[in-house]
Write a structure and sequence with these properties.
alpha/beta, Rossmann fold, Dihydrodipicolinate Reductase, domain 2, 13 helices, binds nicotinamide-adenine-dinucleotide
């Protein structure tokens, strides 16, 4: 394979539009060539097609991804799949059936059985597919994990993720699948944990993967409490605790039911130091002997850099994509076990919720009273919201042996909303 890498992008709207922009810039640099794209209703993207200069670039536009792949299969090196979560598997299968590797947006799927079928199907592609978890390729992350594996900070004792991304109610109305547990008979499980901030969850599993550089922690057991503040089918607030097979305890607190600035902090507690990593911010190493190291990662354009890294792999210049499908197994397992452990999604009562107006954005954000303290207590001390007065019973332990129960559990959650 040689540059320019020949690409087909499935989709034109939503995040597919960002991929179009990134690929157009890479095409200007002679590194990529967009051969084809599609959408069920291409006419709805007439303005975008003009802005992206499809006519001048000779881009073929289809209204069906299967017809596109069939017509263009011999002129493509890679297919990009930035489409709704529940369509990833069928689109990936269609691409690899022609031997074409795919850049599949995260999450690959949140249905663990479908995930295993995707992993198996990927063997049909000429090269491994990539899952678009944005931050694994960051140089500062790879350098720090190398130091972790070399034992510089001592053994890992635990790791936490605090990730708050405020989302207004309109976020859940932007398409048919946002905030949904199921669509028809397909599992969707869209949420802050499984989708919006999935990359940071995957990052924590990456830090605590104790094999080689590209290793992710394997999950042994999970406890979780899932809540909803917004009027959606799924959960918008997650408290999750997981034991890895290496005996490391991970804690995650993520929510879309919040206001103010977005933030995500990954913390890795080791015997000799605590590492604090905030994507887009500073990296800080606090040594137990009192020293502090601080680093400012290079500014980073995730989509462009991930495409470039994948091109290098496709060209044979690097040995592997940042996240292969099988590397996402701990993430898919952890997400599924969070639902199985929680057993239900607890609606937060009205007196625990309030709306905060962002005057600049002219949007209203739902917030949960006392959230900061509850999160801190959970992440630092392991005190569950249910023990701090949130109205639900404690979580049960779920292990990978429980995975086959996922579809039935999710169907019960859907019926509970309908009642
Ligand atoms: N990596 C990131 O930073 C990042 C950011 C945002 C979204 N995402 C991911 O991108 C994916 C898409 O999310 P979204 O919010 O843009 O979704 P979306 O519902 O807006 O869909 C994106 C596009 O997919 C295309 N599409 C939908 N159904 C199709 C079909 N049947 N055939 C062909 N094309 C079809 C359409 O062109 C649509 O506009 C998700 O997996 C999401 O998690 C990743």
């Amino acid at each position: 394979m040689k540059t320019p890498i020949r690409i087909g992008i499935i989709g034109m709207g939503g995040f597919a539009g960002s991929h179009h922009q990134a690929i157009a810039r890479l095409e200007e640099r002679g590194l990529a060539k967009l051969i084809c794209t599609c959408d069920p209703n291409p006419a709805a993207f007439a303005a975008e097609q003009q802005n992206w200069r499809f006519a001048a670039r000779g881009v073929e536009v289809y209204n069906d991804y299967r017809a596109m792949l069939h017509a263009c299969q011999h002129r493509l090196d890679e297919v990009v799949i930035p489409t709704p979560i529940q369509l990833h598997a069928e689109m990936h299968l269609a691409a690899v059936a022609y031997g074409l590797p795919a850049y599949v947006e995260k999450p690959p799927t949140l249905d663990h059985a479908e995930f295993e079928r995707m992993v198996a199907a990927d063997a049909r592609a000429r090269k491994s597919s990539l899952v678009g978890f944005n931050f694994i390729i960051e140089q500062s992350r790879l350098a720090l994990k190398t130091r972790l594996l070399a034992g510089e900070f001592g053994a890992i004792r635990g790791a936490t993720l605090c990730a708050l991304w405020p989302r207004p109610a309109g976020y859940f109305a932007r398409n048919a699948w946002a905030g949904r547990l199921m669509l028809g008979d397909r599992l969707v499980l869209d949420s802050c944990f499984g989708n919006g901030m999935a990359a940071f969850v995957h990052n924590l599993l990456f830090w605590t993967g104790t094999g080689d550089l590209y290793s992710w922690a394997q999950i042994a057991a999970v406890r979780a409490e899932l809540y909803r503040g917004h009027a959606i089918e799924g959960a918008d607030t997650f408290f999750v605790e997981a034991d890895t097979v290496d005996g490391i305890t991970l804690r995650f607190a993520t929510s879309h039911a919040c206001s103010g600035p977005s933030g995500q902090t990954e913390l890795i507690v080791c015997d000799k130091a605590t590492l604090r990593y905030s994507v887009g911010g500073q990296v800080e190493i606090r040594w137990n002997d009192g020293r502090t190291e601080r680093m400012q990662p290079e500014p980073f354009d995730p989509l462009t850099e991930n495409h470039l890294a994948y091109f290098r792999y496709l060209n044979g210049e690097s040995p592997r994509p940042a996240t292969k499908l099988a590397d996402a197994r701990p993430f898919v397992t952890l997400n599924a076990l969070a639902y199985l452990s929680s057993g239900r999604i607890t609606p937060l009562p009205a007196d625990q919720l309030s709306w905060k107006r962002d005057e600049k954005e002219q949007k209203d954000y739902l917030q949960i009273s006392g959230m900061a303290a509850v999160q801190e207590n959970f992440l630092v001390r392991g005190v569950w919201p249910s023990a701090a007065g949130w109205a639900r019973s404690p979580a049960e332990v779920a292990t990978p042996a429980d995975l086959p129960r996922l579809p039935a559990t999710i169907r019960e959650m859907v019926s509970a909303v309908a009642k």
